[in-house]
Write a structure and sequence with these properties.
By secondary structure, this protein is α/β, with parallel strands linked by helices. The chain has one domain: Purple Acid Phosphatase, chain A, domain 2, CATH 3.60.21. 26% of the residues lie in helices and 23% in strands. It has a six-stranded mixed β-sheet. It has a six-stranded mixed β-sheet with strand order 6-7-8-9-11-10, covered by helices on one side.
């Protein structure tokens, strides 16, 4: 009898710890800051140590309230960021557009803020574009920008519609990556696999990491034709391209996260000799 009581207490404590870890919220305004180091022989030496942040699927405000947004901006301002990249799906209501981009513009990374649109911007792309322009954020619509440091450059390419695969944009990415280290910013991770992208690094969101999992063992909704393959974290395509899929910041459909913490990604590039 005593052993049975002790077992129930231990199991209850373990469940509570799992729940707390799944629902944690840090002082940064999101569940966690997820850091990656990405190495490449193709990276120009001057970019060794180049660090930037990637934020996606804000769905502001959803669960990502004004207070959390302020804490996140303050946290990112303290990081030594060269640029901030935004991955789409920005607001739940158009009345929040200016508030969101005004706040994000205060991060002020050295090389600027760049963005793509997500599937939720099909309805309000013009409003999003105008607001970004107002606050100094560069929206990339199937275009590339050079990031230049001390005479060397890498390329950043932003995909306008990452749910269309046989496009001129995909061919341009392939041509670009033949000659220069290329970062591909696209809303869904499926794009990299379905276009056989040869970019050096792909940054995506859309999946929300599943948003809800059963203690990481089962994820009902994956939002990817590849199931769990690119659901979250760092993975590789069939061509060997590195894909980082973020859990994102906000929530959609239901204001709920369980065992999938909201996150902001910070990437440091390293020259592999």
């Amino acid at each position: 009898m005593q052993n049975s009581i002790i077992t129930r207490i231990v199991l209850s404590a373990a469940v509570m710890l799992l729940i707390l870890s799944c629902a944690s919220l840090s002082s940064s305004g999101v569940g966690r800051i997820k850091r990656y180091v990405v190495e490449s022989e193709r990276l120009p030496a001057v970019f060794d140590g180049y660090t930037f942040a990637f934020v996606s699927d804000i769905h502001y405000p959803s669960l990502f309230t004004r207070g959390r947004l302020g804490r996140l901006v303050n946290k990112l301002r303290k990081e030594k960021l060269s640029m901030l990249l935004l991955g789409g799906d920005y607001v739940t209501d158009d009345s929040y557009i200016n508030e969101l981009f005004d706040s994000l513009s205060m991060v002020q990374p050295a090389d600027g803020i760049f963005a793509v649109i997500g599937n939720h911007e099909k309805r309000n792309t013009e409003k999003i574009s105008a607001s970004m322009s107002k606050f100094g954020i560069k929206l990339l619509l199937d275009e590339a920008v050079p990031i230049v440091e001390d005479g060397s450059a890498i390329a950043l390419f932003g995909v306008e519609d990452s749910f269309v695969y046989d496009t001129l944009a995909a061919r341009r990415v392939k041509a670009l990556s033949d000659s220069v280290y290329t970062i591909l910013l696209c809303h869904t991770p499926d794009y990299a696999e379905r276009t056989s992208s040869t970019a050096d690094l792909v940054l995506s969101g859309h999946t929300h990491g599943g948003q809800v999992t059963l203690f990481g063992l089962y994820t009902p909704v994956k939002n990817s034709v590849y199931g769990s393959r690119f659901l979250r974290g760092l993975n590789h395509t069939s061509q060997g391209t590195t894909v980082i899929t973020t859990n994102g910041v906000g929530t959609s459909r239901k204001k709920l996260r369980f065992c999938v913490p909201s996150e902001v990604v910070i990437v440091t590039l390293r020259k592999l000799n």
